[in-house]
Amino acid sequence: MNNVTKLLVLGAALASAPAAAQKVSSISLGVAVAQTSNVSLFGQEQVAGAKVAEKLINAAGGVNGTPIKLVYQDAGGDENGAINAFQSLINKSRVLGIVGPTLSQQAFAADPVAERAKVPVLGISNTAKGIPQIGTYVARVSAPIAVIAPAAVKQALKLNPKIKKVAVMYAQNDAFSVSETETFQSTLKAQGLNIVTVQKSLTTDTDFTTQVTAVINSGAELVVVSALAADGGNIVKQLRQFGYKGLIVGGNGFNTANVFPVCQKDCDGVLVAQAYSPSQKSAVNQKFVSEYRKLYKKDPPQFAAQAYAGIQVFVDALKVIDKKKKLSTWDLAALRTELNKQVLAGKYSTPLGELRFDKDGEVNQKEFFVARIKMKDAKNGSFVFDK
Ligand code: 1QQ
C-alpha cells in the first residue's frame, strides 16, 4: 500500500467512525405529527399535549435531573411527509425515539424507516390492526380500534334498543378507516343487527350526495362512520341536510373538537368511543388536566393525552436506564436499542391510566369511555361523557 492509498483507507475509516460511535449529546425525543394538511386537525391537539408533557416533565426534573428536549418535525398528511420527518429526526436531529406519525396510513410507510435504523417508535394515535407488528422497534400507546370501537355501538343500542337496520360508511383510502369499519361491522353482526348498506368514500371527498342518498334510501336507523375529521364531519353534515334523523356513531376520526366547525350544529349527538377521559383519577392525569386547562382554556382531548402518554413512557424508561448507566456515557445506537427494550419492559402510570406492553409492543390499557358531541353554537361544543 502506498502512502496515498493508506491515507484514503484511513480517511474512509474515519468518515464511517462517527456514526458507529456517536455519543449521546442531549435527551432529544422526536415528535413527528401532522402540523399541516387536513390531518393537522388531529396533529394540533397532539402538539398541544406534547408541549404540556415537556413542560411538566422538565418541571419535575426531566430524566433524573437532565431536561428533555422535544424536536418537532411536521409529518404532513401523507406517507412521504411522515417518511421525511422520520429521516430528519433520526439522521439530523439524532433523537433517541419518536412519537408519531398521526395516521396509521402514514405509520405503515414511515415506521419501517425507524425499524431499519433501530430507533424506537411509539404510536400515539395509530389504531389500525397490525401497527405493533410492523417491527421490533414499533409499539403504541394508542389502544387498537378493535378494543375501543365496540363500546360506541353498545351505547347506541342502549339509547335506542329498537335499532335493527344499520348503514356503514367508511373511507376506503385510509388504513385506519378500513380497519375500523371491519371492527364495526363484526360488532354490528355480533349484536344481531342488520347491515343494510355499506358506502365507501375517499378522505379527500367533500361531496357525499351519492353515499348519503343510498343511506337514506336503505331505511337505516343507525349510521356508523369510519373516516377522518374533515371528510367525516362533512358526511355527518350531509346526512342531516338530507334528512337523516337517527343516531350516528363516529369512529376515532371524530375524536377531536376540530370536527365541530365542519359539521357545526349537525355534529350534535354523534357518539364517539374514547381511550381517555379528563375525569380519570390518577395524580398524573389531574396534573395534566389542570396544566392543559391553564394553557388552552379547555379540557384535554384524547389525542393530547395520548401524546403526553407517549412522551412519558419514553421518559420513564430513560430514567430506569440512566440509573444503571448515565445516559451521557452511552453510544447513541446502543441507547436507542436499550430504550426500545426498556419501553417494553416497564409499567406506566399515565393520564390514560396504567399502561404496559405485550411482547409485540401492543398496549394493554384498561379503561375506555363513550362520549357524545354536544354543540353550543355553530363552532363550539364539547364531548359529554356518558355514564
Ligand atoms: C389512525 C387513527 C386516526 C383517526 C388518528 C388521527 O386512529 O390513523 O390510526
How would you summarize the topology of this molecule?
Layout: H1 3-20, E1 27-31, H2 40-59, E2 68-72, H3 79-92, E3 97-99, H4 104-117, E4 121-123, E5 138-140, H5 145-159, E6 165-171, H6 175-190, E7 194-201, H7 209-218, E8 222-226, H8 229-241, E9 247-250, H9 260-263, E10 271-274, H10 283-296, H11 302-324, H12 332-345, E11 347-350, E12 353-357, E13 363-364, E14 369-375, E15 381-385
Parallel strand pairs: 1-2, 1-3, 3-4, 4-5, 6-7, 6-8, 8-9, 9-10
Antiparallel strand pairs: 10-14, 11-12, 12-13, 14-15
Bound molecules: (3S)-3-methyl-2-oxopentanoic acid (1QQ).
The site of (3S)-3-methyl-2-oxopentanoic acid has 11 residues, from loops.
Name the descriptors.
five-stranded parallel beta sheet; 18% strand; Rossmann fold; 2 domains; binds (3S)-3-methyl-2-oxopentanoic acid; alpha/beta; seven-stranded mixed beta sheet; 387 residues
What is the helix content?
40-55%
Walk across the major sheet and give the strand order. 7-6-8-9-10-14-15
* End-to-end separation: 79 Å
Would you count the extended β strands for me? Answer: 15
Domain module tally: 2
CATH architectural arrangement of the largest domain: 3-Layer(aba) Sandwich
Treating each run of at least 4 consecutive H or I residues as one helix, how many helices?
A: 12
Shape: elongated
Bound chemical compounds: (3S)-3-methyl-2-oxopentanoic acid
Q: Runs with pLDDT <50, length 5+?
A: 4-19
Helix vs. strand class: alpha/beta
CATH topology of the largest domain: Rossmann fold
Reading off the top of the CATH hierarchy, the class of the largest domain is best stated as Alpha Beta
What is the fourth-level CATH superfamily of the largest domain?
A: Response regulator
Rounded to an integer, what's the Rg over CA atoms? 22 Å
- Please state the average pLDDT score: 94
Strand content: 15-25%
Largest sheet: 7 strands, mixed
Listing every helix as H and every strand as E from the N terminus to the C terminus, the arrangement reads HEHEHEHEEHEHEHEHEHEHHHEEEEE
